[in-house]
Design goal:
The protein is α/β, with parallel strands linked by helices. It has 9 helices and 14 strands. α1 (11-20) packs parallel to α2 (43-55), α5 crosses α6 and α8 packs across α9 (288-324).
Length: 325
Amino acid sequence: MTEILAPAGSLEMAIAALDAGADAVYAGPKGWSRRPMESEVTEEEIEQMILYANKLNKKVKIVVNTYPAPFEMPLFIKKVTKFYEMGASGFIATDVGVVKLLRERFPDTQIHISIGAGVSNALDVKFFENIGADVIVLPFRWNIEEFNEIQKISNITLEAFLYNTIKTGKICPGNCIMSSFFQYRDWFAEEEKTNEHGSANRGSKECYRICQVPWEINNDADKSKSILKQDTNLIQEQLVDFVKCGVKVFKISGRERPIEMICKVIKFYKKVIRELEEGIITSLENYKEELEDLRAQWNNQKHKRVAVLMNKAKSYNKMQKEEVR
């Protein structure tokens, strides 16, 4: 059965997404999911999500896609064990050691491989399957031919984003460390991590989306060249191919986006995927106008969010310079 996997950046978003038709939601515990604290949730909120999802016979996946340091592993094991005992249906992970650990400790849980793993080809996918992964979300610039290559050598369940980016080839999702060059954020007490500072890859400092705004190289004060800029689009043509080739999980990104926007996207794709699977439609041509409206709203919200993140990055940089003085 095809699954719509929706974001849960808050308890309110989780409930709304499930009510809107999502089959599962994914939530990031504070300090473990490479997102701002505003888009992460507490253990109590995760427990309430699971209880609510269980009533609807739906699922909650826990995002633990950081790279825990060796001295953080005892706390990490304590955390994931707690979520497993709460009834979480699976985990979304990046780190190879974490994937292996989750499989060994929880044989019956479902393990998704995050976009953060940065897979490059079908052999990478086969590797994750061999160490215990059940589902893998593939880069949003991959096409149907690459999905088919995976199915020749692997039985892993395929997951795809319900959006893509301009195919410039300049940014490789999952292999970016750009945010680590910004000011480290102090840990908060509720994250239970005792060391003073931590990096983005360990769940401390958020991703500022600095790859998604215009950048310039200034070799000469009078000359500059724009090198980075990417946009996103809710998918249309790829969706038909993905359904045909057997993608079983469709993921909506956006734990930081407005709840109303997420619910609109869920309802739209839930409807068209069902119609594609049942043979009612063979393309999204009849939904072109509705999709374009959704795309405009989606990108508008994205641009607002990127602006907020860049302002935060600038403020952290200013604070650092003041501290040096």
